Amino acid sequence: MIADRLKKVRKKMSEAGVDVLLVRSTDRYLNEYVPQEESARVWISNFTGSMGEVLITKDRAFLAVDGRYWTQAEKETDPAHYEVLKAPLSTAIDDAIVEKLHALLPKDGKKKLKVGFEPDRVTPSGLEHFRSKLGARAELIPLSPSPVDAARGAIKSAPGTIRVVDEERVGRTARDKLEELSKKLAELELDGLLIQRLDEIAYLTNLRGDELPYQATFKSIALATRDKLFVGIDPARISGAIRKVRDGLMFVPEAELWASMGKKAKRLRIGYDPGSNTEYGLLQIQKTGATPVPLASPLGPMKARKNSAELASMTAAFARADLVVDRAVRFLSTEVVAGKKVTEADFADKVTELFSDSGAVGLSFRVISAAGKNGAIIHYSDPSPRRVVKRGELMLLDTGAYYDEGYATDLTRTFLVDAPNARGSDEQRRYYTLVLRAAIAGMTAVLPDSARGGALDAIVRAPLWAEGLNYNHGTGHGVGINVHEFPPRIGPNSPSVLEEGFVFSIEPGVYPPAFGGIRIENLCTLERIPRMPGFLRVVPLTYSPLDKRLIEPKLLTPFEKAYLTQYAKVHASSDRKKLRLES
Amino acid sequence: MIADRLKKVRKKMSEAGVDVLLVRSTDRYLNEYVPQEESARVWISNFTGSMGEVLITKDRAFLAVDGRYWTQAEKETDPAHYEVLKAPLSTAIDDAIVEKLHALLPKDGKKKLKVGFEPDRVTPSGLEHFRSKLGARAELIPLSPSPVDAARGAIKSAPGTIRVVDEERVGRTARDKLEELSKKLAELELDGLLIQRLDEIAYLTNLRGDELPYQATFKSIALATRDKLFVGIDPARISGAIRKVRDGLMFVPEAELWASMGKKAKRLRIGYDPGSNTEYGLLQIQKTGATPVPLASPLGPMKARKNSAELASMTAAFARADLVVDRAVRFLSTEVVAGKKVTEADFADKVTELFSDSGAVGLSFRVISAAGKNGAIIHYSDPSPRRVVKRGELMLLDTGAYYDEGYATDLTRTFLVDAPNARGSDEQRRYYTLVLRAAIAGMTAVLPDSARGGALDAIVRAPLWAEGLNYNHGTGHGVGINVHEFPPRIGPNSPSVLEEGFVFSIEPGVYPPAFGGIRIENLCTLERIPRMPGFLRVVPLTYSPLDKRLIEPKLLTPFEKAYLTQYAKVHASSDRKKLRLES
């Protein structure tokens, strides 16, 4: 079957005159979670992991994956057709692709390698990255439609329903947001802005969908003008009730979106964000004759700054999710201590069930349920139905869900699978306590206005660095309608400016392969400090319990001990606000 | 006199067809310290401060300065000719210039403002910054020679002598360095590299000069090829003895430097660093027909990584400077307690005298001697001959010198002017101890390989941020042949990669205007940690005493207290190496 599909794709490639074709994991909505049945990459390779990029040449095909998928990639692909490119830890998958493309450059220095790519699945900055890495000896050729899509034919996916959120709970009307955006467009001397991030469209319209896994967005594309937001979507999907109250929103079939710019298009300046739009989007703007203006979308910080209604909604959702995790943690130890057989997959199912019981409408990502050494695999998103959880080992649970409010939750706890009065080993306690120190450093950090993500990242890592430990992932990401939203990005050297009201994770960890993994993740926000003008402090929005059996008090400073006492008090209190932690 | 000079300059401007002329503080060697008598900006404005940029229009002139020079600029310039542009704290002087240029844009939107600039005193990246800030409505026109130079006529400056450093003490021969550079050029597929930073030329050639204030470099320009280094300098200044042993070095008059590329120039690729070369240098490369290739000069990290001989030379110089500061500190308190009248200027003179007694060949920058509230003026480089130092107040001393080895020293101590058994006020102790905590955070920091300056910056500032305090300058700069060398840069969000063997300052401070200023500065390096592969730790290269009378133990953690005990032990020890602080 794969042989047949590859043959068809190669025919299309040959028609288009390209030597190589790059097939991306994402879809034309730049979705992080693409439904399996819609994924072009799954269709052409059979590989079902969440991340993996494909390169197809005239006679071979390559699948590049990172450490978490080395085994699965080899299992799922046919070696007769596919060679797996194993990106080493801490190198990007794209680097493996670039390396392979370099190897494919023609021996003849004057000939160029013609690389086809799917412009609707790559951002202009992503493309620029490829271009700069490949240099002048490769030519990047946009293929629209993608040869994979052309070979595959149309696929049908059931469109879900579109609903309006309770505007009281998000604190602002769509009209209000559009007016703010309109002002920003005026300031930027723009006539319009192309919007393709689905969470930005959901945010602006106050609409939500249910057609995509692990998110409450809906497939669409939008073009904001100074007085309207044109949403490219089948208008039949928008109920009359919705349309009635949304006076600034125009729902038009996607094909008509560009036509809506009319004949005056040539005189217009349309903004696009090279990191949030697709190359296809940019090409479409150019096609109308308008001038595309690259910029950092003003929607990023707008969406990231949560108002008090949003903070209240999110905090309420986080509290429900905390309870789910708390119950799951206790359930697992009780079962295992009682001698029951529970696998990683069983535990993930239990977590899902508890979320459902708590009123969640869906998970915000696949449950990470990793026992013992599996905890060292950073995105361990396929809990094993065979791996039985053992007493005395550590369990890493990273999970989240959506409630009515439509905001994602995200929480990680690592805990000892044992009786309540047990005590972790010296090694378990040392690692856990060091990660906890890093988490406390983040949760108590005070930063000046306009500090960057890189500064908070260093403050969180410092206690681990001091012990020669580190973690090979970011310290935090924004959370909102999507569980991963940007800004902010909190990572090494990140230039992302941190602002009041941003909601983000702080999630340090350690992953010694022979030991396993420990990660502690809390969602936090940034608040003004009345007695310290010009500064913001980090405040946790969740007080989910920490595992006392894994804390080694000798490794804590007096400040950290006092903080943990206060943290436990806030957790136990029914009025969290009053007891808010002073950092 | 100034009127007459401005008139002459305006005549040249009119001949060149420009509306405005930008006159820079620096010279064609991009010197940080330009001799007063050579400075074009001093000549045209009468303003003698170290930093200040001039704008001349057809009928007015402007001098932009930052906070430290607001008063001096108004005193030294004639209001009939000059308007002082006061750049507010924390904004760059160039921003004030850009603002004024915006105000000068012609009302008629179609007309452009013609801005003349001196291409030999601005870097291509500096120029790019102006260009991007000014947009399409200003045209930047290079004027060579500068209208100010043309109006002024030739100036004579006495050329100093050029000497060879003791190569044992710098650990490498010039030939050895040239071979390393040659390999790097080959890797970069370059035929040559234009070198204009005087400290890079001094570093590569192992030659030093004495013609410039506060540095051991000499005026020259250099072009490295794969097998030679052409140094543009009057060859008569190079003694036969030097020329004999320097087989890779070719000394040619500057005018002949470009001719040395010969007829094959058109086929050559010459590297230049947009941040370390001048626009003039770039224009010269273009004139030869060669292809200029922008890059981050490989000389930056080469020069910054000190070998063990350099570290030994530097440590020895720092120890001598420490002793000078120690003596100066004790001198001042003794005199003031004994009722003697000592002014800031007297104290600066005393420091200079002590440096001279200690064998220093020159200062590495003007002594900062700031009493009480004057400490809040960050670069207070004009100690007052009227301001008498009072008992019980704080004195901020920031100073450094050169010894035979040719490396700059740099040390800041803030101390209580009082008897040895006195005690600072609550406020003095609080601020001092908090700054000390920041300094300790820096001196004990452990960082992973390839960490950035921004990470160390955040770690140093965190203890101050936690109290709502901050400082409006960088945390540290590289130190070598020049007292300010780059890389590294340790500042907010700095992408400068930190490497083993770099030598740099860590100098946190607080400057509440109503209180004064406290800064503590130690020079440090980065070392490998045998038991922690992949990590580097900061190690101080100086153990100059701290003022116990200003330390409030209640504000210190147990770790910090233990560190200070150990620090004092190392200071007291004759064998510092053995007692090196474990972080």
Question: Which tags fit this structure?
Answer:
six-stranded mixed β-sheet, 19 helices, homodimer, 583 residues, alpha+beta
3D structure, described in words:
The structure is a homodimer of 583-residue chains. With 583 residues, chain A is an alpha+beta fold. Chain A has 19 helices and 27 strands. In chain A, the strands form 8 sheets. A 6-stranded mixed beta sheet of chain A has the order 4-3-2-1-5-6, with helices on both faces. A 6-stranded mixed beta sheet of chain A has the order 12-11-10-8-13-14, with helices on both faces. In chain A, strands 20-27-26-23 form a 4-stranded antiparallel beta sheet. In chain A, helix 16 (426-443) packs antiparallel against helix 17 (453-465). The model of chain A has no long low-confidence stretch (mean pLDDT 93). At the A-B interface, strand 20 and helix 17 of A face strand 20 and helix 17 of B.
Question: What secondary-structure arrangement, pairings included, does this model have?
Answer:
Two copies of one chain form a homodimer.
Chain A: H1 2-16, E1 20-23, H2 40-45, E2 53-56, E3 61-66, H3 70-76, E4 82-87, H4 93-104, E5 113-117, H5 124-134, E6 138-142, H6 147-152, E7 163-164, H7 167-170, H8 174-187, E8 192-195, H9 198-205, E9 207-208, E10 221-225, E11 229-232, H10 240-245, E12 249-252, H11 254-257, E13 269-272, H12 279-288, E14 291-294, H13 299-304, H14 308-337, H15 344-357, E15 362-363, E16 368-371, E17 394-399, E18 401-402, E19 411-416, H16 426-443, E20 446-448, H17 453-465, E21 476-478, E22 485-490, E23 503-506, E24 509-510, E25 518-519, E26 522-528, E27 535-540, H18 558-572, H19 576-579
Parallel strand pairs in A: 1-5, 3-4, 5-6, 8-13, 11-12, 13-14
Antiparallel strand pairs in A: 1-2, 2-3, 7-9, 8-10, 10-11, 15-18, 16-17, 17-19, 20-27, 21-22, 23-26, 24-25, 26-27
Helix pairs in contact in A: 14-15, 16-17
